[in-house]
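Help!! Second protein's tokens look totally different from the first
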Amino acid sequence: MKRICLFAGYDRDGIIDDYVVYYLKSLAEFADVYYFADCDMKAGELEKLKPIVCGAYAKRHGRYDFGSWGELMKLIGFEKLAEYDRLLLVNDSGYGPLHHFKTMFDEMDSQACDAWAMCGNKFLMSFFISVNNKIIRDKHFQQIFAHIEPLANKNLVVHKYERGLSRILSERGYKFGYYINPEKVSRFYKENRAAVRKLLRENIPFTERLFMEFRPNKVRLYSEDYIVLTMMGMPVLKSMFFKINDNIAAAYWQKVIVTDGSYPLHLIENHIRRMKLERPAGEAVRNKLKDKLRRFFYEHKIKNNRLITKICKIPVCSRVVTSSLQVSED
């Protein structure tokens, strides 16, 4: 299997963290890797990647990961990309691999799917996507990345490009697969509930466990459910896991996040310390209660292409979100 990986990066301080270098080294075992960061890098930072990747670039363009992937596609060219069996679209929003990538690649390569993602809830979560040669050659796929526009915030990027990519590939008749999907999570939790509870009981105080919530009917990347995902062999821990201020498990992550034992955990420790993401569990409990109250009195979210505002759980305003991704039929 000949793979190429386009890796999108970003750092507010213009540096390449050691966890990113480790991630790229691990991917380079399975693919030719190219790196593009949506930021201005400090002098010498890209030099760190020379022994690992086939090309490393950085420029502030403000079009998030899809913009960086598009930039790399322009630099490499679709003629060269089409020489590969698989194209990986990956970003630096997670730490990994907590479990070796070989297990995931072996399982997914054995499935007859045109596109697959590490995780998905009816759409391909874009932090780790693999597409086959047929999709690489598809003009509609190419056109998406040739016209990535800057958007106001990440939520619109998810709505327009992440979900939009899945929608267009589905409309084109391509078959999807997921290494971790809701059905797999739900089945694993039912079969291993006692093991999950034992892990929590041994590592998290009872008073804090009372406020923890497990809803294993979806793939949730930023909540306490992540414990279950890593028990299943999820290779990547998303950094957003530490940014959600009501995630109790984040305070005990070294004890409850399950790895295969090979990942150097100090890489995660160093990054969350630099980004000031550490917080005590008691603060997470208080934030969880405050967030429940806030969402009861006021909440807005995108659903079915509409931005819905609720007050006291009652919808009071709804408007169409017009940023749907479109491609021409030419």
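Here's the second one for comparison:
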Amino acid sequence: MFIQYHDICIRNAEPSDCVQLAAWWNDGQVMAHAGFPLGLNTTAEEIAQKISTDSDTTRRRLIIEYQGQPIGEMNYRLLEDRTAEIGIKICVKDLQEKGLGRIILSLLIRRLFETGCARIVLDTNTKNTRAQHVYELLGFHKVRVNENSWQDQLGVYQSSIDYELVPEHFHDFAKEYI
């Protein structure tokens, strides 16, 4: 996948990105919202192995660049029934809460719908209210809340919200800035 939009680029992750991905994935502050307050304790080599199995028809890890610099990562996984599961992390703290997330997600969601997906799903921690706000602005609706459904690395029970989006409810924020 390659999407260029003004100062934003979304592209397939490559072996040369693995050192940066490892730095983000091993940073507990970046990964805490996903239940890994101690980071993932992974290596660039392990990430490169995972990336080597990516394909456009199964799953893809993506790098988000802004003004030519990597600022985060996204992924999608194609499921049955023309459904895609997505995830996003803007890892550069100074670029969070600037409106980039809704534009970046719009670009990915638009592309997935254009390529035949009929539904997009994701989940988020109930504590991640920033993300919930963005998802709901994009048109996602809550399917279910999973109370105390898993434990993070510190043994603290966490709850999550499952969301889904269909094309007729999608609010494309990237179109507003063309």
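Reply: Different proteins will give different token patterns, so don't panic. The first strand starts at residue 2 and ends at 5.
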